[in-house]
Amino acid sequence: MKAQKAVILEKSGTLCTILTADGSFRTMRSSSAAEVGEEIEIKNGGGGLRDGWGGFSVWASAAVLLFLILTGIWHFGFSRTEVPVALLSVDINPSLELKLNAGDRVIQAIALNQDAESLLKNLSYKGRSSQEVLGEIVGRAVKLHFLNKEHPWVLLGLAPVAGRTQSLTGFDLSGLVDQLSVQTDGQGTTVHLAAFQLTGDQQQKAQAQGLTPGQYALWVSAEKAGFSLSAHALSDPAERDRLLSEPKVQAETGSWGGILKMGEAVPAQGKGQGTSNQGQGRSTPSRSMPDRGLSMSTQGRSRSTQGRSGSSQEPSEKRPAGRSVPAAEKGTGAKGSAEREKGSEKHKKQEDGQSGMAPSQTEIAPALQSFLSESEAGLRTENHEHE
Amino acid sequence: MPEWPEPVKRWDDLSEDRQTREDFLAESQPFVRHVAVQTCGRFLEWGRDEELSEALIAFNEAINHFEPGKGVPFLAYARLLIKRRLIDYFRRQKHNDTLSLDLAEVNQAVDLRLSVAEFREREQNRERAQEIQEFASELSKWGLQFQDLVETSPKHRDTRASLLRAAQTLAFTPTLWHQVEEKGKVPIQALAAEAGFHPKVLERGRKYLLAVALLMARRHDYIYLREYVIPPERRTAL
Lengths: 387, 238
Hints:
The structure holds two protein chains of two kinds. By secondary structure, chain A is an alpha+beta fold.
């Protein structure tokens, strides 16, 4: 464990305030031997106090560390196995960040707003995989109604922590999104996912703007799609949902490798209720794209459409349709129609610029097949262009 | 982002090359004068006041005796030698009443010969403690205490790095620092525009930002403490 120097600024009983070599002001327990003005060594993330010029013995340091752990005031960070290499931002309405180690295990979960605090309350995350933790977080968000028909989007951003300039390896963002999509669809919950991976430079820019990695990537995508807005606007969840639902923004995220997964809730029972099509993700092997301001690995896009009562959807229309299928939709056809009607109105509100009503249930299969074929063809062409 | 005011120097050049030393002495005159004014407690002028010549001699002696790589900032070592020489000067001149030091300190015989090792063993902690006391006093003028800095000190390494960069911009952009000293608060909007940070980020860390900028801007006063907030390659620059 690497040590760093610190200076004691003031003492009050057994507590002292220190300034560490990385510019951090902290409070910690100390022995009576250390005085104000004295330089000490502390271990990175350590709570114990060790005098750099031969004050405490190694055993005394171990005893102090053990004491701090037992009293539960260990809050200075990380052991050698808990060095964070990546952070995964999650923006729903609550915003939070997960710090991950090299093994894709969560070592810290940080709430960025008050709603996120309620989301993270009593969440056991240490040592669990990001997929597990994220799945639980999204599940809680649904239960607490942070995720609902009006606000179905989850925005994810993966970036290296400060000081790491190498691209992240060993993190499968696409796999994470796929698994999460399957999980939420399987629970009968409609959740749309947008995920981006940033480089170290991009993360610094995000930091400078006061944005999470996901917010920053969405902001850049929206600007490229022709939307002029301040970075600050991305802190508004409603604005984020609006942008993510914009076809032009979706196209822009897809064009440089962001991952979009439109959830299609699969009810546990019932016929004619929604479709059984889950998010159709097409994954291609990751490779670096030429830098267009954000460099990301190429991933497949998922597109899906669903049936609603009304006129058919244009087969040539490639816009992904966010579908809101009530989780509890079951039962008679009459009830199902009523639910679909309700959903249809909301769906109309969500999809700006889309005209008409979506196709009926019976027209889904051929329209969908046609759409998917076009998507695949388009994707192959795009991938070929980037080779 | 503005450059650091003191360029990094190689110690060998200073010790061996006459021109480099002369240039360094000329550049260091503001520091020498600052310490002398603090010690003497009155305005001093080059070419008029003998104290400044004594101080410069002490500074030159510090260059001769300094050993880099011992964990002692050169300016801290030089500062103490300047003070000691001035104490000795006043004892010889019998002008004790003009000094801003304790009578007990003045009446003690001053040993002008002090190696870096001796400095480190006997004086450094005391000097550092005095600096901390002065910093605490300065903070209180701004309505701050160390506990405030603990509470607002960014836990995220990224955020802390950003605020340190913002503090550098604040401390070394004359128009911005002038606003701080004139109005007694951090010009968040102007700093955000100059440094390229979001105002919200700066506002959240305002107290920490101000404290760190003070350490950076008052570089002759906080020789030890600023080592903790400046980039590693700038530490103990000599």
